Amino acid sequence: MNCIKHPEVVAVSKCVECGAGLCSECVKVSEYRRDNKPFCRDCNFNLINELLRDDTKAKKWLLAKLIANALFIVLGTIVLLGGGDPIFAVVVIALGGIPTAWKLFSPSKEEKWENKIDDAVAEYKGTGSGFFNSIIRFFIRVLFTVVVGAIAAPILLIVNIVKFVKCNNRIKGYEDELANFADI
Ligand SMILES: [Zn+2]
Ligand SMILES: [Zn+2]
Prior knowledge:
By secondary structure, the protein is mostly helical. It is built from 6 helices and 4 strands, in the order E-E-H-E-E-H-H-H-H-H. The protein has helices at 24-29, 41-81, 86-94, 98-104, 109-125, 130-181; strands at residues 13-14, 21-22, 33-34, 37-38. It has a two-stranded antiparallel ribbon. A two-stranded antiparallel ribbon has the order 3-4. The longest helix is centred in the last third of the chain and has 52 residues, at 130-181. The chain binds zinc ion (2 copies). One zinc ion (ZN) binds at residues 3, 5-6, 9, 22-23, 25-26.
């Protein structure tokens, strides 16, 4: 088998994606590798485009999250500085951190089963109602979510800014790589 790009040269390897033959020069210039195996020119090109698409989408999401997060922090701070209800201010600041905090306090499968058993025992013994217990658990989760959400919101903002910058740098890198393809 010969190289797909240099038909006069004997292939020393194959493209890990499409199986096309690759000469030693083409192996050397392969920008990406899977399991340490090279890609051919076209498969490198497609892969970079795919990565670029994914990161472009991710960048939009990160930006939306970042803006919402920053907005809630600013609004909450304005409420606080304006002499508004501090609890309301904390809830507003927490809004950006709430989805993350809510997931954090999601009960595990085992905890859900334990709760069900506790509720059933309480019902049989007449010491409580399962429905009432589940409402209590829900409000405790809401409370934890708001408190942790308020603490998490500024941290998440910083984390998302860092992620956004990294994502943006990757996009620039892909664009440079794609521009280089024109020269190959
Ligand atoms: Zn290929
Ligand atoms: Zn070649």
